[in-house]
Amino acid sequence: MSIKxxxxxxxxxxxxxxxxxxxxxxHLRILCFHGFSFTDEHLFRPKLFQRPTxxxxxxxxxxxxxxxxxxLDESLTLLQQGHLxxxxxxxxxxxxxxxxxxxxxxxxxxxxxxxxxxxxxYYVTHHNPIFRLAIQYLFWKxxxxxxxxxxxxxxxxxxxxxKGLEGEKTIQHIIAHGETILDEPGRVGLxxxxxxxxxxxxxxLVTSRRLSLMTEDEVATLSQQxxxxxxxxxxHHLPPDSTAVRRELADNRAVLQTITGRSLHHxxxxxxxxxxxxWPLLEKEDIHTATTCEPGLISPHTSPLAWPRFLDSxxxxxxxxxxxxxxxxxxxxxxxxx
Length: 338
Ligand SMILES: [Zn+2]
What we know:
Blueprint lengths: L2 H11 L2 H8 L6 E4 L1 E2 L4 H4 L4 E2 L1 H13 L3 E2 L2 H10 L6 E8 L2 H14 L4 E4 L2 H4 L5 H11 L4 E2 L12 E2 L2 H17 L3 H14 L4 H7 L7 H9 L3 E4 L10 H19 L5 E3 L10 H6 L4 E3 L18 E2 L6 H9 L1 H10 L1
Parallel strand pairs: 1-5, 1-12, 2-3, 4-5, 5-6, 6-9, 10-11
Antiparallel strand pairs: 7-8
Helix pairs in contact: 2-15, 4-6, 8-9, 8-10, 12-13
The chain binds zinc ion.
Zinc ion binds next to strand 5.
């Protein structure tokens, strides 16, 4: 166990977690999850995919500890009015993977919890595995050390490495080729060819939807079940110029507002990348809150356009999760920063 985790264990035992919770009761806690694992996705990307059993353990702990879940609108009101009690949490789930509706929603419903799902919509309207993720997964999964792609993509060597730093270069080259030169059917065709060359079953990846997002109908079902669908840009990207940012938000809203029948005002920065220079534009776009990927609790003085969240993952020990939710980790970080 790391020194930090040992410290957390002692703090929990000596009721410092309970005390921290009381000291931070006017603060808002937001948790962040991404996709869930059907088979080996959590081994491929432990920060992106979590086993449902781990997620259920977290939800069980929140339930037993007396937490209730809020929407972003409710939390903004309670925070501004000073009416939080320390027993509220906002559960956010980024991207909109198919595994959210298939694996996580039943667990949330069993607990009587709600959640905000930030949905990036390009792959909600194109029902294919996420191209970049599929290529990375295929290279992770293959047991082949070399792959021939010079007949598929110009300018490649006869044989390219699949693993290590050289493999990383091959992956980046394929992704860049797909994302800059090909259209969507072209990218699907390329991913299929690469899968064949790597002795892997592309059809399994397509039909299992392990690397796919929800469809419009699946997002609509979650919205009807009172899960809060919110913005995450259309192409999972916030470009540097304001016209392109407006287009990302407009395209994202066009899909999600049609599905939900509601106007949407909460954004999650894609890949957690943000800068205060975006704020005037986001305010003009009527964005009420925007969440980052930085850990911490939210006080009434935190800018609503840079709300921190705790990113949970497959490899996060339960004690770290509890330290973050209780507020102990937040207070410790503040103390150490002084
Ligand atoms: Zn995302």
